[in-house]
Amino acid sequence: MAGKVGFVSLGCPKALVDSEQILSRLRAEGYETAPSYAGAELVVVNTCGFITPAVEESLAAIGEALAENGKVIVTGCLGAKPEVIKAAHPQVLEVTGPGETEKVLEAVHQVVPPEANPFTRLIPPQVKLTPRHYAYLKIAEGCNHKCSFCIIPQLRGLQVSRDAAEVLFEATRLVGSGTKELLIIAQDTSAYGVDLRHRGSDYAGKEVRAHLVDLVRELSGLGAWLRLHYVYPYPHVRELIPLMAEGKLLPYLDVPLQHASPRVLRAMRRPGGAESHLETLQRWRSIAPDLAIRSTFIVGFPGETEEDFELLLEFLGEARLDRVGCFPYSEVEGAAANALPGQVPQEVKEERQARLMELQSRISLEKNLAKVGKELEVIVDSYGEWPGQVVGRSKYDAPGIDGLVYATTDGTVKIGDLIRVRITGAETYDLHGEMTGTIAWKPGIGNLASQTIRL
């Protein structure tokens, strides 16, 4: 046995996928994952460095790992700034950047050597940090945008898309092993394939273009729920909406609009404004009326006036988005927005955040109350507090960020099952109901024996 490695994974779903890749490689080399600091021979910390609070959380996690174990390797977004990590924690053994799996493995080998001949072992299944029934499917890395508040291109580089066949082979393997929901992610999912000039690649005897619409059409044949995250409202996104109406893609879009004031959006180096946003939403909803739209907004951005903020509130009142996250602007080291004039006091940022969420909570409650009496399809994530109760999500809710459905059942339901639930009660974000039936699920992956599955 090569040894035991502790692992701490912080940040977004994209970082989670990086953690899964590192852990899968370590397991293939014979390493075990230690459940505690005390049982590990060293600890790998996958960090986030997107905003100041995330940097602080990452540095604190590194400090805790050093105090509890003493041997720490750091990777991830904050790893792109080794001077920040070394200044706070000079005892760290090695610092690598995001996506640098090989360097992480090399650093681990230096401290805990691998088995003499790892090729004598069968390659184990991919390590997943999510429950078996859902998985994040990363289709690209990096970002081509130059948003003034963000340093992702500095941390992760410009966009690099995966060939469509590579994505499809991974998705096929996941669905074949029991994954019922695929959450498609990238820094900018809707720009998938632009860097490849949408070139085609061979999957199951046919060529599939590296284009989001083409990829989703192929993925829909696998039979799993497909959920899109981090979608910019480009014109071609409208081609995805009919797939929702046809039941091939979940009626859910995570669209990071960030603001509604054209003046603030220009300062952010973001496109659009309230009017164009509303027109886009109206077009989408005319095709798929039950489309749930999640978005995130930044308040207190440098130069944001009360008039700008009121415009944002007015937009939210008209747009009636289904899911909203709101964050007070926070400086990010190296971001262009740090030099902008008109920095907003912290108390004003927090007051605006509270006002926005108060408005959105009313909208969310109204939308949830409208679901009472309706029947929803729900995927079960966990068991509830009392016998027969399960906790799951509808098609309109992503794991970890959206609402939950608490359902009473006959006690035979298992985690990962798909069930029908009649909604009997509603809260601001969560729903309550009673199971009315189960939904049979069979992966639509055809004859796997006739396909070459890439591991």
UniProtKB/TrEMBL annotation:
Keywords from the named record: 4Fe-4S, Cytoplasm, Iron, Iron-sulfur, Metal-binding, Ribonucleoprotein, Ribosomal protein, S-adenosyl-L-methionine, Transferase
Gene Ontology MF terms: 4 iron, 4 sulfur cluster binding; aspartic acid methylthiotransferase activity; metal ion binding; protein methylthiotransferase activity
SMART domains: Elp3
Cofactor list: [4Fe-4S] cluster
Domain MTTase N-terminal: 3-113
Residues reported to bind [4Fe-4S] cluster 2: C143, C147, C150
Compartments it resides in: Cytoplasm
One biological process term in Gene Ontology: tRNA modification
Manner of cofactor binding, per the entry note: Binds 2 [4Fe-4S] clusters. One cluster is coordinated with 3 cysteines and an exchangeable S-adenosyl-L-methionine.
Positions of the Radical SAM core domain: 129-366
Chemical reaction(s) catalysed: L-aspartate(89)-[ribosomal protein uS12]-hydrogen + (sulfur carrier)-SH + AH2 + 2 S-adenosyl-L-methionine = 3-methylsulfanyl-L-aspartate(89)-[ribosomal protein uS12]-hydrogen + (sulfur carrier)-H + 5'-deoxyadenosine + L-methionine + A + S-adenosyl-L-homocysteine + 2 H(+)
Binding-site residues, [4Fe-4S] cluster 1: C12, C48, C77
GO CC term, one of those recorded: cytosol
Family: Belongs to the methylthiotransferase family. RimO subfamily.
Role played: Catalyzes the methylthiolation of an aspartic acid residue of ribosomal protein uS12.
HAMAP family in the cross-refs: MTTase_RimO (MF_01865)
Descriptive protein name: Ribosomal protein uS12 methylthiotransferase RimO
Species, as recorded: Meiothermus granaticius NBRC 107808
